[in-house]
Amino acid sequence: MSDKVSFDEENIFGQGQENVTFAQYFDGKSFLNPLVDDQSPLFLANVTFEPACRNHWHIHRADKGGGQILICTAGQGWYQEEGKAAVSLEPGKVIVIPANVKHWHGAKGDSWFSHIALEVPGDNTKTEWLEPVSEEDYLALS
């Protein structure tokens, strides 16, 4: 969905502010709209990607539990686990990412994209950021 006005109408959880804290781990601009306050035991936020924006390969580490759940809400995107084919994302698609699995996600080249990100609680959880998705590999998906 390249038309930003139509995307904004579909993006019911809101774009939020530019994600400057984690910008170094994204190619392109992303935006973060927290859906719960700091008192919540869960991190829950709507993440919006401009067209062609994607995060770097990363792993949600945990000794027990952990991982991440993505609930796609607007636009079109991609999700890929290391060694597997990329999965097309559209509103209503839910992706459950187990702890300790290398992956990336982001917008398709011609579409804005949003998903709700839920960090799954666990023991000794942390995100390990890795290398960017290569331009060649990303463009091969479009």
Automatic annotation (TrEMBL):
It comes from the Bacteria. It holds the Pfam family Cupin_2. Residues 47-110 form the Cupin type-2 domain. PANTHER family: BLL4564 PROTEIN (PTHR43698:SF1), RIBD C-TERMINAL DOMAIN CONTAINING PROTEIN (PTHR43698). This is Cupin domain-containing protein.
